[in-house]
Amino acid sequence: MDEGKVSCPICHEGSEIGERASHHNEKTIRELANRMNRIEGQMRGIKGMIERHVYCDDVLNQIASAQSALHGVAKLLLEKHMKSCVKEQLQAGDDEVVDEVLKTIFKLIR
Q1: Among 37, 90, 44, CA closest to 63
Q2: Which helix (H) or strand (E) holds 86?
Q3: pTM value?
Q4: How many angstroms from the chain centroid is the CA of residue 86?
């Protein structure tokens, strides 16, 4: 094993010491990455609309659409996180993960 690396099947697989890593399957990672690529394109489109002096209401509608798409990514990631990372940490006896995930959810719903 590389120096400075830890291997933990729950949250540290192949990550740097002190750095946790997800362990989602490749399908989930591709789906999240594809969604983020589309959102990145939406952001560039919105920037272009602003630079072209597109009517404000049209720009605001595109911003709302991008926010909704980003919210969808967050929901999917939260679902996968709860069903894998959090579940496994609870099974390993780490009850602190509940406080961690609640803090994250509260940030998401602000």
Answers
A1: 44
A2: none
A3: 0.76
A4: 14
